[in-house]
Amino acid sequence: MAIALPGKTVRLKNWLRRFRRDQGKRARPLALGATGHLLLSSAEEDHVADHLERGLLPKLAGADANGRLIILTGLAPGADLLLMHVAERWLTRRGIEHEVVGLLPIPPDRLLRDWQEKANSAGARNDDDSFARAEAELQRALQACDVLVDLMDHADVGGKLDDPAFRQLQYRRLGALLAEQTDVLVAVLRKDSEGLPGGTAEVVEWRRNPQSVPPELSTLSVEQRVAGERPKQLVVLDPAVPFQSASGLPPDAVERVRKQAHDAMKAGNYLQCYDIISRARARGVDSRDLQYLTVLALANAGSTRLALRRYVEFEEVGDLAEDWLALKARLLKDLAFRGSSTSDQLFLEAAESYEAAYRNTGGHFSGINAASMYCLAGKRTAALKLAAEVSAILRKLKVEGDEESYYWHVTQAEAALLLDDMDAAREALRRADRYQVGNVNSRSRTRFQLKQVAACLGHDGTFADLLALPPVMYVRRLGATSSETSPESRAAIAERLAIMKPLVFLPLLGLPELRAAEICIELGVPLYVSLADERSAEVARWRRIYGEEAVERLARCLMRAHEVCSARGFVDGEEPWCARYVESMAFGLSLLAARRLATNWKVLGIGDTGRMVGMLDQPPPTDALTATGEFNQTSAPTRRRYVGLIFADFVGFSALSDENLPRYWGEVMDAMAQMLKGHAGQILFRHTWGDAPHIVTRNASSAASIATDIRATLERVRGELTGDLSRLELRLSAHYAPAFIGHDPIEGIDTYYGTQLSFAARIEPVTPPGAIFVTESFAARLMLEGAEHFVLEYAGELELAKNFGQYRLFSLRKRTLPDFGKTAELLFRGMSR
User: Could you give the 3-state DSSP secondary structure of residue 11?
Assistant: First the structure.
């Protein structure tokens, strides 16, 4: 007999409409979701209840949810219903307003039969009494729900319920809703759980990677999908692990943080890795692994000097792990590659640190790095000796897997290079090229070091190109007539793209570019998209101009793009300038990617219909993409122009005593003022709040020069200071964007204002002391204006101050070239680390 449903059932689309409306309100409730799909023992039920009642729920009760919570549950017997009952009971006892929403992927009687079949297959007790108890529990849960949401399409559901594939599809639809619509998602998941479609493991994966939710299952609106909204929190509970609250931390807190940080590091998001660990250490979560990742993240983000300071803080006697012992050597190597009068000494110190790690552990990684550093320091005998030892070690090793094989072969190539056996070096690289095919960053770093060693030894470093890297391509609309003279067919171009798998940078301004983007996605080509506005605003613009079908295509494209960046700060009437800005942003970012990876760069030409018409070696005309300076709105007298924006802050200023302040103004700030006089022709506006200088410049290159000179000035002056003054650090941020030119009636001076000044000011607080972080648009613009005197390193994506959102940032520093002979300039051009 079918289980009766209370008269409070609504269709999914109707409930979603109401739910989205409530979520859009300022006084929005907190949505707590639960997923389990597990049959739990009594002990496991107690563990899960403890995690909720003593850990999660007290924290949520204090969250900014306007005192209200919504519990979303799939109602399956076992973990699902346990989570619902514990949360509902706990909130009721404390008088916390809440609503329980039951989500029905299939009718409750069929849900119960699926549970019974799962219990049978798991060998659990499943007699008539246990089934009756489960039926009664489900009936009580249905009555306890304030709302029941029907996830089924009733057009022809009756004939489909006996089809396992249909029921699995419905469970996956439920999983997508929980992954996408909740603020906090609690998942009960055993470590050995299978990742079956519709299961909890799949829901957890969707939660962690929202773009992996199949579009046909997604419950997000087009606007939400395009905007890339991400859920706030995921709590995964292993029912076998009891709750331990002596420190107020989950028992596996360190491992969770380590995994999150490692995932961010692996994705190249070094800033996020550093931020995850910093916040965790502030809560008392710490370990040797987390300290190691902290230093490595700072080094990869370009903050090498701060990384060295952190290394000294964390250093302990007796830690013999190769990674930790080699970490200081890695930092010294980074500093040496930057080039200075002390590079030889830094290479020598790096070599000695690597050798110490090698002698303690016998690791070929530290051994070959020690040999190369000795070579670069001019110690050829020591380099030859170590290279021979490492080569002998490699011959005895047995390696398995893609990653091990890659590093075995590239280490063999580096050893052969040092031993002057170029044939063996080339053959080893040819073999290495079979592995880690998609690991662009690792391949780029390997090629970089091999070329430096080859240059030092007087060899042609181009042999390192045997380790292939994909090219970078910038997509440019060439016009209607270009297709008539194209020497290649569309099929031939597509075939070349599929083989090369280039990194494609595309300004997504209209339907032709959208079609080109769709082709790239179909071919599996990594796509980097630039938009004319924030995602939600772009949806509205595309809907107004191109219609609903184009908006759906846009949403699918953005969901599958590797990265998406947006122009900021433009107003109505500035579409031509905005389009030029978006084109130049994609152009500059493509040049930056090619420079960072030291790989080939091309233009991918498309026609007015989006048809690909050719791959060109020459760049587009820069005068069409690099418009700069002032522009006026046609409909208003307001003056507007592109500007470079600098914000700086002295860390440690608030700790200065009255006795120190006169020296601060008389020595530190006076030195800054004298330095700025040399840039007077490029400065449009300057101001200071005492510890926070703010400068507006004519362009990105002048802002880069001033920002790096500010930091260099502090480094010079600080050596002459004592006490708290000697411990001052600077955080600097820079941005390139449009701004208004106006008059400040209070101060009686001309000034610059606009949303982009506020945006730039939010970057400085998240910048590590001693570093300069710049925006994507600044980095792209600097590449077009001429970045030969600077190094830009991707630092990662980070949440800006005052909830300003997540944005990708780059670290900036001045470039200096070490003296490796005539090939030095060629080798270092575009090879930042």
Answer: strand
Residue 324 DSSP label = H
Backbone angles phi, psi at 154, to 5 degrees: -80, 5
Pairing outcome for strands 233-237 and 68-73: unpaired
The model's pLDDT over 330-350, given as tens digits with 9 standing for 90+, comes to: 888 988 887 766 788 999 999
The 3-state DSSP class for residue 807 equals: strand
Nearest alpha carbon to residue 322 among 262, 290, 386, 366: 366
For the segment 127-143, what is each residue's pLDDT rounded down to a tens digit? 556 677 777 888 888 88
Characterize the bridge pairing of strands 729-744 and 772-775.
parallel
Q: How far apart are CA 764 and CA 742, in angstroms?
A: 24
d(CA 452, CA 442): 16
DSSP string, 139-191: HHHHHH-SEEEE-S-TTS-GGGTT-HHHHHHHHHHHHHHHHHH-SEEEEE--T
Dist CA 377 CA 375 (whole Å): 5
pLDDT digits (tens, 9 = 90+) for 718-764: 878 877 888 788 889 999 999 999 988 888 888 999 999 988 888 88
Q: How many Cα neighbours within 13 Å face the side chain of 91?
A: 24
| Orientation angle between helical segments 548-560 and 511-522, nearest 10 degrees | 40
Q: How far apart are CA 386 and CA 368, in angstroms?
A: 7
In the chain, the amino acid numbered 176 is A
44: amino acid identity, one letter: E
Which run of H or of E encompasses 384? helix 380-396
Helix (H) or strand (E) holding 97: strand 97-104
**Comparing C-alpha atoms, which of 636, 634, 740 is closest to residue 684?**
740
Does residue 372 contact residue 383 with C-beta atoms inside 8 Å?
Answer: yes
Determine the Cα–Cα distance for residues 809 and 194; give it in Å rounded to an integer. 37
Q: Are 734 and 645 in contact (CB under 8 A)?
A: yes
Classify residue 218 by burial, with Cβ atoms within 10 Å: 0-12, 13-18, 19+: buried
Positive or negative, the CA dihedral 683, 689, 693, 697 is negative
Phi/psi class of residue 829: alpha, beta or left (left: φ > 0; alpha: ψ in -120 to 50)? beta
C-alpha span between 370 and 359 (Å, rounded) = 11
Listed in sequence order, the residues at least 6 apart from 609 whose beta carbon sits closer than 8 Å to its beta carbon are 512, 515
Give the other-Cβ count within 10 Å of 333's Cβ: 26
Phi–psi pair at 120, nearest 5 degrees: -60, -45
Residue 735's pLDDT is: 96
pLDDT at 829: 31
393-408 pLDDT tens trace: 999 888 888 889 999 9
pLDDT tens by residue, 219-255:
887 767 666 555 568 888 878 777 665 445 566 778 8
Angstrom distances, CA of residue 604 to CA of 478, 490, 500, 564, 615 = 9, 12, 13, 19, 5
> What mean pLDDT is predicted for residues 409-437?
93
Nearest to 365 by CA among 397, 335, 338, 319: 397
Q: What is the DSSP letter of 669?
A: I
- Please report which helix (H) or strand (E) contains residue 130, including its range: helix 128-144
| Residue 248: per-residue pLDDT | 52
Q: Count Cβ neighbours within 10 Å for each residue of 507-525 and write b for 16 or more, e otherwise.
A: bbbbbbbbbbbbbbbebeb
d(CA 314, CA 291): 7
Residue 747's pLDDT is what? 85
Backbone φ and ψ of 237, nearest 5°? -110, 125
Q: Name the pTM for this structure.
A: 0.70
CA distance 774 to 808: 9
